[in-house]
UniProtKB/TrEMBL annotation:
This is histidine kinase. Its EC number is 2.7.13.3. The lineage of its organism: Bacteria, Bacillati, Actinomycetota, Actinomycetes, Propionibacteriales. The chain crosses the membrane at residues 54-75, 81-100, 112-141, 147-166, 173-194. The keyword Membrane applies.
Length: 426
């Protein structure tokens, strides 16, 4: 039993941080498969923070913790509880960060806020505030705005209690608490910004994954349609000839004694049909198995392709205008594919026996035109249906390279034309 999955299910799986489902086309059935193993968990390690950025954060937290520790130990008038609190807070800050880096969990970042608030009790000046700002920012980005607000309120409460124990007046406590809240609010804003950027990144990643999956399905369906169309054409062409051969031989067998001359004539017609069937099969074998790329380039490569098709009875003439110039890798590959696909389409669809290839070497690039003497009805791509996979791929590739591609009916038959910049792919 084949299970089907919708695109909405694919989106829900990606949005939940789970594996993303794509689809493959096998045997006429679309089946779900994994297109990516899974999205990373929604923690800062799984966000868009690069390894270099995480290393910088490691250094920043370590340096700030060390500075705060040294400030507490070198205090001129420490109390009996400020030094232990500052030392413990500095060590716990470094420990919570290291624990989070080894095993990313929301709890470690929440404890980091507590440790930074404890470090502030040691009177380390602005360093504990910077640690708290960083901790709140990371909590919001990792666990959400609500967790960040809780951390900020906890830090403000601890700071107010600490200042009260230090003997500050209420006015100073209020002013410094407001300043700490403003600084913590900055951490909330930065953390929320990181979280929204991460959400947008994950949404874009999911959309790209879905588009790639759609493209893969569309590609499979188009290839399946081309295989089906090729099978019908092969059956109609070769099957018809084989049927005529069988009928001729059967008739010759019936009249071989009563009308030997007619029997020999039917055998001759059967031999002619067999020759045509063999030539037809050779054309299809060449069309279904085009020549592979060679180390040749330019006109020499085009001549090599033409030679491989001339053995099918197809007359291929190549001419050029302008002086041959070196092409970039992508431009050269496009030109090679254009000639190859054009000749393949002639064999498979147009019924032509002559093809003329014109290569225009221009200063800004190369333009190639293929024109056959087949009938328009023999080119399904031009009869109003969707273009075949080969021609569509050429058009997309030409656009990507900054060029163009067209297929239209000409005076003699069908004309393919493609142009790309010479430097594409260098």
């Amino acid at each position: 039993m084949v299970r089907r999955s919708s695109w909405s299910q694919c989106g829900r799986a990606a949005g939940a941080g789970g594996p993303v489902l794509g689809h493959h086309f096998r045997g006429g059935v679309v089946t779900p498969v994994m297109t990516v193993s899974s999205l990373q968990p929604r923690t800062l390690v799984g966000m868009g923070l690069s390894r270099r950025m995480l290393v910088l954060l490691d250094v920043l937290v370590g340096v700030l913790s060390l500075i705060n520790l040294l400030s507490v130990l070198s205090a001129t008038a420490p109390t009996r509880w400020t030094t232990p609190a500052g030392v413990a807070g500095s060590l716990l800050t470094a420990g919570c960060w290291l624990s989070w880096r080894l095993r990313p969990r929301h709890l470690w970042l929440q404890l980091l806020v507590v440790a930074a608030a404890l470090a502030a009790l040691g009177g380390g000046g602005a360093v504990p505030l910077l640690l708290t700002l960083l901790a709140i920012c990371l909590v919001v980005a990792d666990a959400g705005l609500g967790q960040g607000v809780v951390g900020l309120l906890f830090f403000a409460a601890v700071g107010a209690v600490a200042m009260y124990l230090w003997g500050r007046d209420w006015e100073s406590i209020l002013l410094e608490s407001v300043a700490a809240a403003v600084l913590g609010g900055l951490g909330l804003v930065l953390g929320q910004l990181l979280r929204e950027l991460e959400s947008e990144r994950r949404t874009n990643l999911r959309l790209v994954t879905e588009l790639r999956a759609r493209h893969d399905v569309e590609k499979e369906l188009m290839l399946a349609d081309e295989r089906s169309r090729s099978a019908r054409e092969l059956h109609d062409g070769l099957g018809h000839r084989l049927t005529l051969i069988g009928m001729s031989l059967e008739y010759a067998e019936r009249v071989r004694e009563s009308a030997p001359e007619q029997a020999f004539a039917e055998v001759g017609r059967a031999r002619q049909q067999a020759s045509e069937a063999l030539a037809y099969m050779r054309r299809w074998v060449r069309a279904l198995n085009p020549p592979r790329e060679t180390d040749l380039s330019g006109i020499a490569a085009f001549e090599a392709i033409a030679d491989s098709f001339r053995g099918t009875g197809l007359t291929v003439r190549i001419r050029q205008t302008g002086s041959e110039c070196p092409l970039g890798r992508e431009a050269s590959l496009f030109a090679y594919r254009l000639v190859q696909e054009g000749l393949t389409n002639v064999l498979r669809h147009s019924g032509a026996d002559e093809v003329e290839i014109t290569v225009h070497w221009q200063q800004e690039g190369i333009r190639i035109e293929l024109e056959d003497n087949g009938a328009e009805s023999g080119a399904p791509e031009l009869s109003g249906a969707e273009p075949g996979f080969g021609l569509r791929s050429l058009a997309e590739r030409a656009e990507q390279l900054g060029g163009g591609f067209s297929a239209r009916v000409a005076e003699r038959g069908v004309r393919l034309s493609g142009v790309v910049p010479a430097g594409a792919g260098r």
